[in-house]
């Protein structure tokens, strides 16, 4: 296992080198051990060099050998590796595992190691609640991070933290995990990033100029979409407040397993398709209903799943393109949309 | 001001009016159910829904060989569209009932063993899915759009005794 840890860390450090960063500094504050280039962080959006990055999300791997979801994640890796031009790096949006076991996370790490480009991850609830993130951290490092790439400041937060419901109830780790596995579980209540990460975030961005392009990455959306299914982050208003000084913030998230766009203030919000299965659209009105995909056809085994790629321009505009495994997109969504 | 006597008379009149309406085309096999009987019937329904809720979330091992349960893709029974059946499904090439759709999902995405279509477990699955679509318009044949269940404000979606764990403490 230790060489897998080394593999993932080495890969990320070498990515930072390839990206032409001049200064590698392990941030001294809080829980961040990410890579930061202070010089570039202060140049603002005039310093953006156009590039693309891809997102893979929600693999939900089971422990059985040769499970169909293994192949679906492998297909996502192959799809990203075949993109032209190649994305500079890949973000994984959480829920590598279904039941949070180490073997599932190790399997995910092995499949994702097939990517030609570096990878950064944030955790989902399915990765976390068996051992409270021990195996995940061992494989993928810290769950709270930031780095700069070609003039853009990237931030990752762990958004799936809930209040302790298990200690008083005397639940085992397995029972706790089982409660968290059910999307509509009435027990855990709404989750969020909580105080420590809010402080970290405030500190992380305090010296950045307002014209700095910022991308924030979480498992759940940073707006109240459908709280019953935790299609929300309870302290999203605080996060948006901390980031309100910036001209433009892009939020990308997993967890909802569907195409979706929203905008609140200076923050645009884009959801990722999963590689395991699509979630239904919940019974709420959407501000941008045209960003929904077609209803998934259950007779097509991988309909409503896939990957996504985002091209960032020199003026920090993003072209979001969903890359479904099947023909899942409406004509509006087919050629991508600007954020 | 209305006296008790007047209220009683009004009630008698209302009952006889209703009886007259039914007498025209319908006859009762028995007197209407008592409150106690209705409560028992409701309890029996809730018991079936509760069994369906458990089955939907993976309580019966032979319904899957790959770990998937109905709830993986259908939280709160969303996108199961029970009120749109019977309808034509491409995988069968013909019109099928909701129960057959349930069995298709068990046998295909879940790679499990189909349920007896007349068994209590299948009735329970149907009870849960339909209960979460109560009041929705019945639209047989609608196949191109995902419909939504009722909005579940709290709990499991039916009158379940709360577990008392976490935020699930309200009746
Ligand atoms: Fe997920
Ligand atoms: Fe999730």
TrEMBL record, chain A:
Q: Which residues form the Calcineurin-like phosphoesterase domain?
A: 51-258
The record's InterPro entries line, in alphabetical order, gives:
Calcineurin-like_PHP, Metallo-depent_PP-like, STPP_CPPED1, TAT_signal
- One short Pfam name that applies is Metallophos
Q: One GO molecular-function annotation for this sequence?
A: hydrolase activity
What start-end ranges are recorded for coiled-coil regions in this protein? none
Task: Supply the SUPFAM superfamilies for this chain.
Answer: Metallo-dependent phosphatases
Return the protein name: 3',5'-cyclic AMP phosphodiesterase CpdA
TrEMBL record, chain B:
Q: Which InterPro entries match?
A: Cyt_c-like_dom, Cyt_c-like_dom_sf
Molecular function via GO: electron transfer activity; heme binding; metal ion binding
Tagged with keyword Signal: yes
Q: Which UniProt keywords apply?
A: Heme, Iron, Metal-binding, Signal
Organism superkingdom: Bacteria
Residues in Cytochrome c domain copies: 47-159
Signal peptide residues are 1-29
Would you tell me the protein name for this molecule? Thiosulfate dehydrogenase
- List the source organism: Thiocapsa roseopersicina
């Amino acid at each position: 296992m230790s060489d897998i840890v080394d593999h993932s860390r080495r890969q990320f450090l070498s990515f930072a080198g390839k990206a032409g960063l001049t200064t590698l500094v392990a941030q001294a504050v809080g829980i961040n051990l990410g890579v930061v280039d202070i010089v570039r962080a202060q140049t603002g959006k005039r310093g953006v060099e156009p590039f693309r990055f891809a997102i893979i999300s929600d693999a939900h791997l089971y422990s059985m050998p040769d499970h169909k979801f293994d192949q679906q994640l492998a297909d996502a890796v192959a799809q990203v590796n075949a993109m032209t031009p190649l994305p500079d790096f890949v973000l994984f949006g959480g829920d590598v595992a279904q039941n949070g076991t180490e073997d599932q996370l190790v399997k995910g790490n092995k499949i994702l190691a097939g990517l030609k480009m570096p990878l950064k991850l944030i955790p989902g609830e399915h990765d976390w609640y068996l051992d409270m993130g021990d195996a995940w951290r061992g494989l993928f490092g810290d769950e709270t991070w930031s780095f700069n790439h070609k003039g853009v400041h990237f931030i990752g937060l762990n958004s799936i933290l809930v209040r302790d419901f298990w200690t008083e109830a005397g639940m085992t780790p397995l029972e706790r995990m089982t409660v968290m596995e059910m999307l509509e579980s009435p027990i855990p209540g709404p989750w969020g990033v909580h105080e420590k990460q809010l402080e970290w975030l405030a500190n992380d961005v305090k010296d950045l100029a307002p014209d700095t392009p910022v991308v924030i990455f979480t498992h759940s959306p940073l707006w109240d979409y459908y709280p019953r299914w935790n299609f929300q982050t309870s302290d999203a208003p605080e996060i948006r407040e901390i980031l309100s000084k910036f001209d433009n913030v892009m939020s990308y998230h997993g967890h909802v397993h569907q195409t979706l766009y929203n905008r609140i203030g200076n923050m645009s919000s884009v959801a990722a398709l999963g590689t395991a299965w699509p979630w239904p659209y919940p019974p709420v009105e959407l501000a941008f209903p045209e960003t929904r995909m077609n209803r998934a056809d259950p007779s097509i085994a991988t309909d409503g799943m896939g990957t996504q790629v985002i091209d960032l321009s020199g003026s920090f505009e993003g072209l979001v393109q969903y890359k479904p495994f099947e023909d899942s997109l409406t004509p509006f969504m087919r050629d991508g949309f600007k954020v | 001001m209305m006296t008790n006597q007047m209220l009683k008379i009004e009630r008698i009149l209302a009952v006889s009016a209703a009886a007259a309406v039914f007498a025209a085309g319908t006859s009762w096999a028995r007197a209407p159910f008592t409150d106690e009987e209705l409560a028992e019937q409701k309890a029996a329904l809730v018991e079936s829904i509760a069994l369906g809720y458990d089955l939907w979330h993976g309580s019966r091992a032979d319904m899957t060989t790959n770990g998937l349960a109905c709830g993986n893709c259908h939280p709160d029974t969303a996108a199961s569209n029970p009120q749109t059946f019977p309808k034509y499904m491409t995988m069968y090439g013909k019109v099928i009932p909701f129960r057959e759709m349930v069995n298709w999902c068990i046998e295909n995405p879940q790679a499990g063993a189909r349920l007896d279509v007349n068994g209590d477990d299948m009735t329970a699955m149907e009870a849960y899915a339909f209960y979460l679509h109560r009041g929705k318009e019945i639209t047989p044949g609608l196949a191109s759009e995902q419909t939504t269940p009722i909005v579940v404000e709290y709990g499991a979606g039916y009158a379940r005794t709360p577990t008392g764990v976490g935020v699930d403490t309200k009746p």
